[in-house]
Amino acid sequence: MNGRSFGGLNAVNFRKIAPNGFGDPHNSYPHAMTWFNDRLYVTTTRDNLVILKMRSPFEIPLEFWPVPLPQDLWDLDLRAQIWRHDPADGSWEKVHTSPMTTGPGGVEVPLSIAYRTIGAFQGRSDRAPALYVPTFAPSMLGVGSVLLRSEDGVAFSEVSGPGPGVEGQSFRSFRTMVPFKGRLFTAPTMGVERGKPNIAGAAVVLASDDPASGSWEVANEIDFGDPGNLSVFEMVVHGEHLYASTLNVQTGLQIWKTDGEGRPPFRWTRVVTHGAWRGKLNEAAVTMLPFKGSLFVGAAIQNGGYDRIHKIGPAAPELIRINPDDSWDLIVGDARTTPDGLKVPLSGMGPGFNNPFAGYFWQMCEHDGWLYLGTFDSFVFLEYALIPDTPEWPKNLLKMSSLDALLRRCAGFDLWRSADGVRWAPVSRNGFNNRFNYGVRTMCSTPRGLYVGATNPFGPDVAVRHEGGWQYEPNPAGGLEVWLGSAMAMSEVPEAREPLPLAGDTVPHLGELSLDEAVGGGGEPEITDLDEAADRWIDHLYGESGYRGFGYWREDVRSANAACRALVEEMASLIPSGAGSILEIATDTGESAQALIERRSADAVTGVRFDRPQTAACRRLLPRVRFKRGRWPRLPFRRGVFDHVICIDVPGRRGDRLRALREMHRVLKPGGGLVIADMLSADPLPPTGEVRPGDTADAPPAYEAVLRAAGFEDARALDRSFECWTSFRKHSTRFFLMRLLAGLMDLELYRRIISRLPGGEGAIDGYVLATARRPPTTPGAGAPPGRKRS
Question: pTM of the predicted model, to two decimals?
Answer without folding.
Answer: 0.68
